[in-house]
Amino acid sequence: MVSSVSFNPDFSAVEAMLPQVRRFAFTLPRMQASLAHIALQQQKEWLSFLTLRCERDMELLEQLSKTEDMTDVPGIVSNFFKRASDDYSQEARKSVEAGSQVVTEISREIETTQVPEARPGQRATVKAA
Fold first, then answer.
1. Superkingdom, according to UniProt (predicted)?
2. pLDDT band at residue 49, thresholds of 50, 70 and 90?
3. In a domain, 118, yes or no
């Protein structure tokens, strides 16, 4: 004897999420472009930072080569490492702030994007608020 099993899944939770999923899907291309722009800005910032650090490294070598009293060396090296620590700390702070700004901008973009009603066979367009 074969018994039949009926399967009636409840998709109400999925259906409730569809507007948010559609909004996210419509904002995705703009988010990707924004993220690419931000990544390039971050690379530019890092190159600037590395240039600064290379200049400071060269200054250290110059100071060490010009010192006539070896007792000055610990002070020169100590100042170098203090400045390096300050520079890296400041750069880390900038990176954290940039990351926070990115998250805020993406959240705002998702919230303000208006998604038109989907109609079968019609291509949708996106209008920013």
1. Bacteria
2. very high
3. no
